[in-house]
Design brief:
Layout lengths: L1 E8 L4 H9 L12 H8 L1 E2 L5 E6 L10 H5 L2 E8 L21 H10 L4 E2 H7 L11
């Protein structure tokens, strides 16, 4: 299932988050693997400093597996279904694991690209004088 996530970086966790992204440890040990870095590459941030991204999750409870990894750095403000579950091929049983290669994510991410600014660029700009490798 696809979720729209709204979150704010916890105060004082900005540098640790950038370091975890740069050294590849963000989400280390999670079944979601490198999905965390991808999500933040696609994330956008508004003037309210709230990051927004699309998350794929197959847990019965939204982000049940991912939540501890995100909460290390973020205050999760809202996690909601990105679209009607009856239209999700995985959820309605039409195609198991369909969310892995579904065009829903691409369309949602394209829509998000029209909003705010790139999250990582803004995050890097909050730490003057610090250099962090861009996410690959």
């Amino acid at each position: 299932m696809r979720y729209l996530v709204k979150a704010r970086v916890k105060p004082g966790r900005e540098e640790a988050l950038l370091r975890a992204i740069a050294d590849g440890t963000l989400g280390q040990g999670s079944i979601a693997g490198d999905e965390y870095a991808h999500d933040l590459q696609q994330a956008r941030v508004g003037e309210d400093d709230v990051a927004r991204w699309v998350e794929t999750c197959f847990c019965a409870t939204p982000l049940a597996e991912e939540r501890p990894y995100w909460e290390e750095y973020f205050e999760l403000l809202r996690v909601k279904d990105a679209h009607n579950r009856k239209n999700c091929r995985h959820e309605n049983g039409t195609e198991p694991w369909a969310c892995c290669d579904c065009d829903c994510t691409r369309r949602l991410e394209e829509k998000l690209q029209q909003q705010g600014k790139p999250f990582l660029k803004k995050l890097r700009g909050t730490l003057p004088g610090k250099s962090h490798e861009p996410v690959r």
